[in-house]
Amino acid sequence: MSLGLISDLVLVLLVLSLAVWMNIARTAYRAVVGFVAYGLLMTLIWVRLAAMDVAMTEAALGSGLTGILLFGAASRLAPFEAAERARAPGPALRLLIGLLCTVVAAGLGAVVLLLPEPAPTLAPLVAENLSPTGLQNPVTGVLLAHRAVDTLLESVVLLPALIGVWSVAADADWVGRPSALPRPPASEALTLLAQVLPPFGILVAIHLVWIGADEPGGKFQAAAVLAAMWVLVMMAGLRQPPPVVARGWRELLVVGASLFIAIGIAGIWLADAFLAYPEDLAKPLIIAIEVALTGSVAVFLALLLAGPPAGAHRREV
Amino acid sequence: MNGTTLFGLGAAALVGLGLYGLICQPGALRKILAFNLIGSGIFLLFGVIAKRGGGALAAAGSGSDGDPVPQALVITGLVVAFAGTAIAVALLVRLAETAGRSTLDTDAQDASSLPADANPPGERLP
Fold it and tell me: Which of A224, A272, A313, B108 is the 20 to 30 Å CA partner of A294?
């Protein structure tokens, strides 16, 4: 058994025990702590699977931002947990459900063991067709050239998601600011961190989006880092979340997808297809879309975290 | 048995554990966590398939170490999963504030404890 295989086995066992912990933890808060640790270990697994782009997204978004979202919800919902526990299914029913879930997992495991050999892959096709885009990073090439329509839909789907989050606000609260972010007690350490870290975070994000064309990185990773910096500043109380009626922020939200669509439509005349790029302009256009989407996605992620608008009476809570 | 297959089996177990939590946990927030666990297991399956595809490529001497198509899909999936979680959390917090409960049970006992107008202006829990 090689050293690599042993470390993989340890990783899998740790991740599985954290998944068990998320099921058995007594309070949602403890389960969320498990989830954040789980996300960080998943990041290591993605590195082991040679998926650096995914690893960065997992660390920033899957573990970090989702963790903040769930922490905020867990502290707000803590008063209801005693009533929840009374409704848990009995041991016999749990055993039955556990058995059936084991059957599902075993079926999936069998599929993994029976995957065809050699594995079907689109990688050679991507590698062949990467050079016309002028990019070096195949993942960015897939996201913005070969499967650009998926990426476009994904950046557009964030808009209905945010509208959905905002829509749960009561009418009277509509003019308020979002208040769902957890607000830890003010401390000098948090304030200092929120003052010192963001400049570095912004630099990292610029680096990620710039290097994303050729190396692991790109707009989603950069946007998640930017959103995390902004959320840190808001959680430390240095800045308030913007009111949802603020026009400038709303315009920033749609800039990325609008530019993407505009360039996509221009492609009908310039390159004979929607979302196709003229060959000599592919890389500058892709970088322009990446930069605009980074800004929009960062604002989307931060506002999704900040939650629906709430009235002034709730802001002190 | 290599590391990639091991991760694939782990992914299958994660889906099973998430499914168990989704069914057994009475609280909706715990269900959202379980939903994320299932999603994470499915993403990991994609990652395993991407790595296997890259392995074939590396054997052909191309040097790449993963199929970028499933990897790009996973990145898309992570962003959409975050958006879905954000909506679910917003709905749940609002449900708890207005109805005073955080489960999806709708039995008679529960319905009687609901206010007649589930969304009266100004009625919020502390």
Answer: A272
For A314, the token pair is: 């709730």
State how far the alpha carbon of A146 is from the alpha carbons of A56, A133, A277, A280, B119, in Å: 21, 10, 11, 16, 47
Query: CB–CB of A121 and B57 under 8 A?
Result: yes
Q: How far off is chain B from A284, nearest CA to CA, in Å? A: 21
Q: Report CB contact under 8 Å: A84, B21.
A: no
Closest CA–CA distance from residue A141 to any residue of chain B (Å): 9
Asked, as a colleague might, if the bond just before A118 is cis with ω within 30 of 0, I would say yes
What is the nearest CA distance from B37 to chain A, expressed in angstroms?
A: 7
Q: Which two tokens stand for residue A263?
A: 């360039």
- In angstroms, rounded to a whole number, what is the distance separating the alpha carbons of residues A58 and A46? 8
A59 C-beta neighbours (distance < 10 Å), count: 20
Cα distance between residue B121 and residue A234, in whole Å: 28
Q: What is the pLDDT of residues B48-86, one digit of tens each?
A: 998 888 766 666 655 557 888 888 999 999 999 999 999
Residue A218, helix vs strand vs coil: coil
Nearest CB to A49 within list B56, B66, B91: B66
- Per-residue confidence (pLDDT) for residue A273, from 0 to 100: 84
Inter-chain touch B23–A8, beta carbons under 8 Å:
no
* Statement: residue A250 has pLDDT above 50: yes
**CA distance linking residue B96 with residue A7, whole number of Å:** 43
**Whole-number percent of chain B with pLDDT over 70:** 75
Of A22-31, A37-46, B3-12, B63-72, the range with the lowest mean pLDDT is: B63-72
Task: Tally C-beta pairs within 8 A across A and B.
Answer: 304
CB A243 within 8 A of CB A177: yes
Contact: A161, B4; criterion CB under 8 Å: no
Q: HSE on the CB side for B59, CA within 13 Å?
A: 10
Please enumerate in sequence order all residues whose Cβ is within 8 A of that of A188, keeping only pairs 6 or more positions apart, or say none: none
Q: Which CA distances in Å does B79 have to A155, A301, A304? A: 9, 9, 11
Q: Which of B53, B82, B121 sits opposite A61 (nearest CB)?
A: B82
Residue type, B44: L
